[in-house]
Design a protein that fits this description.
The structure is a single chain. The protein has 321 residues and is of the alpha+beta class. It has one domain: Thiolase/Chalcone synthase (Peroxisomal Thiolase, Chain A, domain 1). The protein contains ten helices and 14 strands. The strands form four sheets. The chain has a five-stranded mixed beta sheet with strand order 1-9-14-13-12, with helices on both faces. A five-stranded mixed beta sheet has the order 2-8-7-5-6, with helices on both faces. Strand 5, helix 4 and strand 6 form a beta-alpha-beta unit. Helix 7 runs parallel beside helix 8. The radius of gyration is 18 Å and the shape is globular.
Length: 321
């Protein structure tokens, strides 16, 4: 558990970039044994977007970054660090963040990719707030970006229907006003590392996503409510006192189950799975932008970011708008 004790770190601007190509549930009916009703009932997903053939993860990240900088009123040379949460980089190295730094001409910035499953962008936000609070950085560009198009097994109906591509970004900077990031907790349970994994086999030389869906569902519904309650208690706030929740968009049944166990009204969250599917590390950043854009989050609101992902990883982050 980390309580931010130094300078106030606040969100200065947000954005999203969603690629143009769309695949609906009806499209998936043509390639795997499934149907629209089955997918909606079990996941809440109606369609998802995928990068075009010539679009890489760094391209989506860059487009989101440009829009976030515009929204923040800052220029690229004012950024001290670029942090990219991703599980689908163009290459293992060089990093997506370095490519984005170059495309932006962010001449004063460092660059780090963070791979923590779907918790990646929350982890990046936690690191950004820590660096600003401690005085290491003044302005940090945080991006969540994924192109799952090339790591999906299009014959596996248990996973191919779930994921989509996209990017979201925000600029975090120093603020003299009240509020900002208050506390964070990042945990891992490596005993569950086989639940969600990227691996190759005899049929797929290129690694593809494999997931034990039922085990993930049970893990999240068992572990996350206790994790969130503990985080809120240590942060000095009750779950019902949180004004808005930004929850990783993995599955509507998971989201419904966790909030039911927390006795929290689902009016305090935003669900966009029907439009995008699970965009992994991009999910939180896209949801953040849509919550800010729609003015669901108001000045003074207590906002709690929550995510889980492959590893298994868990994360929570408390913010006052």
């Amino acid at each position: 558990m980390i309580r931010y004790m130094g300078r106030s770190a606040k969100i200065l601007g947000t954005s999203k970039y969603i690629p143009e190509k769309i695949m609906t549930n009806k499209d998936f009916e043509k390639i795997v044994e499934t149907n629209d009703q089955w997918i909606i009932e079990r996941t809440g997903i109606c369609k998802r977007h995928f990068a075009l053939d010539d679009e890489k993860c760094s391209d989506l990240a860059y487009r989101a970054a440009v829009l976030a900088l515009e929204d923040s009123g800052l220029t690229a040379d004012q950024i001290d660090m670029i942090l990219v949460g991703t599980n689908s980089p163009d290459t293992v190295f060089p990093s997506v963040s370095c490519k984005v730094q170059g495309m932006l001409k962010a001449v004063n910035s460092g660059a780090i990719d963070i791979q923590a499953g779907c918790t990646g962008s929350l982890t990046a936000l936690s690191v950004a707030a820590s660096g600003i609070s401690s005085g290491i950085w003044n302005n940090v560009l945080v991006i969540g970006a994924e192109v799952f198009r090339d790591i999906i097994d299009w014959t596996d109906r248990g996973t191919c229907i779930l994921f989509g591509d996209g990017a979201g970004a925000c600029v975090v900077g120093v603020s003299d006003s009240d509020g900002g990031f208050a506390s964070t907790r990042l945990l891992a349970d490596g005993t569950g590392h086989e639940m969600i994994r990227l691996e190759s086999d005899e049929e797929h030389v290129t690694p593809v996503v494999r997931m034990k869906g039922n085990e993930v569902f049970k893990f999240v519904n068992t572990v996350m409510p206790k994790f969130i309650k503990g985080f809120c208690k240590d942060s000095g706030v009750a779950p019902e006192e949180i004004d808005f929740w930004i929850f990783h968009q993995a599955n509507t049944r998971i989201i419904d189950g966790v909030f039911k166990r927390l006795n929290v009204s689902q009016e305090k969250t935003l669900t966009n799975l029907s439009e995008y599917g699970n965009t992994s590390a991009a999910s939180l950043m896209i949801t953040l932008h849509e919550a800010m854009e729609s003015e669901k989050i108001k000045s003074g609101d207590k906002v709690c970011f929550v995510a889980f992902g492959a590893g298994m990883t868990l994360g929570a982050l408390l913010y006052q708008a």
